[in-house]
Amino acid sequence: MEEFGKLTERAAGWWRQRQIPARPATEQRRRLSSTRELSDHVLRDIGFIDALPPPADPQEDKPY
């Protein structure tokens, strides 16, 4: 039983060394200024925007 205790202590020490320390975020997140920007942000996150060609006039909103 004593050997099991030593093995457990060694495993716990190894595990403590393996844990990666937390790193602070490197970039400041900025607030989204408009619903258009929010919409683009969400669509880019799901991969929809990158699959479509860019619109002819990026300033022109098209009705759905």
Pick out its properties.
64 residues; mainly alpha; rod-shaped; DUF1127 domain-containing protein
Description:
The chain has 2 helices and no strands. It is mostly helical. It has a domain of 26 residues. It is rod-shaped and about 75 Å long.
Distance between the termini: 71 Å
Tell me about the biggest sheet? none
**How many H/I helical runs?**
2
How big a fraction of the residues is strand? under 5%
Mean pLDDT: 69
Element order: H for helix, E for strand: HH
Regions with pLDDT < 50 over 5+ consecutive residues?
none
Q: Choose one word for the global shape.
A: rod-shaped
**What integer value in Å does the Rg equal?**
25 Å
Question: Structural class, from secondary structure content?
Answer: mainly alpha
Helix content: 40-55%
Number of strands: 0
Protein name: DUF1127 domain-containing protein
Describe the SSE topology:
Layout: H1 2-18, H2 35-45
Organism: Collimonas arenae
Protein name: DUF1127 domain-containing protein
Please outline what is shown here.
This protein is an all-alpha fold.
